[in-house]
Amino acid sequence: DQQVKQNSPSLSVQEGRISILNCDYTNSMFDYFLWYKKYPAEGPTFLISISSIKDKNEDGRFTVFLNKSAKHLSLHIVPSQPGDSAVYFCAASVRGSQGNLIFGKGTKLSVKP
Amino acid sequence: ETGVTQTPRHLVMGMTNKKSLKCEQHLGHNAMYWYKQSAKKPLELMFVYSLEERVENNSVPSRFSPECPNSSHLFLHLHTLQPEDSALYLCASSQDTGHRIETQYFGPGTRLLVL
Known about the structure:
Chain A has about 110 residues and is mostly beta strands. Chain A has strands at about 5, 10-15, 20-25, 30-40, 45-50, 55-60, 60-65, 70-75, 85-95, 100-105, 105-110. Helix content of chain A is about 0%, strand content about 55%. Chain B is an all-beta fold and about 120 residues long. Helix content of chain B is about 0%, strand content about 55%. Chain B contains no helices and eleven strands. In chain B, the strands form two sheets. In chain B, strands 2, 4, 5, 6, 9, 10 and 11 form a seven-stranded mixed sheet that branches. Chain B has a four-stranded antiparallel sheet with strand order 1-3-8-7, with no helix packed on it. Chain B is globular and about 35 Å long. Chain B starts with a strand and ends with a strand. The interface between A and B is medium-sized, with 27 and 30 residues.
């Protein structure tokens, strides 16, 4: 059974609007969460992370929100730009697990001009 | 070269072939990883090396054999693969795997097709 779930395989947003990508997890031991972005023919690139002791982390246009009680996190991109079009992966880890990141299947974001 | 590089980028092999995938990181990291991404599946961790010692092996079949000669290089030796092993193989590195959770940096991947 998947421990990290991204239930929306795709999302389409108009340029300038907000993109909200969602991720749910089942393992309450996860204490660190990351978002990666992947363009075609490239490897995933790290975008933003959040520790379980926080509920929000912001970096420029990107904000990650964590709701531990709901075991849910989301990535907000404001404003969305066409260059943000990519596949976004949510990943989770447990401290001391020797770098074992558990990934979701990804959500393909398309930002239309 | 900067970051994490992987060669070859594409590979087609028969089930009786032996081939190797190569990964090199130029970030001064101590930990390296192999991941597999099959179609419509999440990335799956295969192997973790920290300071050239294997620390994690997620029950990967023995037809996949990793080698880490030093902290900058990682190989994945392939032999007698099956068609279901066709996937994107990604290498990653991080500063370490210790008690801190380190961000992992990925290479571009090798797209493998087993006929």
